[in-house]
């Protein structure tokens, strides 16, 4: 074996230095969060829209986390409050009403999971998305509910709405809160803006072991949401996108409700601009646009609406392609 010449060694050393320098100066992958919230007096209306954009993002984590004040709450407040609304719990007055035959189908029921598909008598969109769970196929569900079994009891932790692309997730509830309650929802994928934002899903495939939700989008591309944890502390989804995101189009929208700091499903944002940066916090109305490698949509003050509902956090933005 011949020894390397000094010129070769110098070249290798220089290349190593350049690579190390590039790694040291590379900016962390971040998302831009835009506040598109509108004012409302109705506690049952999603007036909060936090729009997430980014360039080149391929992976992220989405978590539902218990609110920081939960241990101080003795009893939950979950009853709907229509006192400031122009509707009373039925269909929203401005929504179309497409009619369907109601049904409830248990798509999977094993020792760990129960997955249920539900078709409602009326829904605001006509889409009937094909769904596959394991080897079973069906279509036309308005809700896909995922329950985690614990000590023989099935506890709901995730709902996906195939016809408009909305998700709700929550940790397993503490015993004193019964089944617990959802708060904020979110969209994941190429967001379309109409009368309200939606994501058009072409098909859904759920793999039970390990539990993962595979989405194909109508406009192309796909996503996989691996259910990494469902526990008393959190429900966590590790998301991989088939295509890198582009700033021109939102890849997610957090939807929620805000009337006042003590009557809201989200009333503040906590975020970091980089992994090394100090955490920042602002009340929701004061947020305009921010850049974040991690952002938590939540509450510090107990709300009189959905008191135990979780915070929702987006983090782990990564531009690396899946292996």
From TrEMBL:
Record's keyword terms, sorted: Signal
Signal peptide start and end residues: 1-26
Residue ranges, annotated region (Disordered): 300-323
UniProt keyword Signal, yes or no: yes
Organism superkingdom: Bacteria
Name of the protein this chain belongs to: Secreted protein
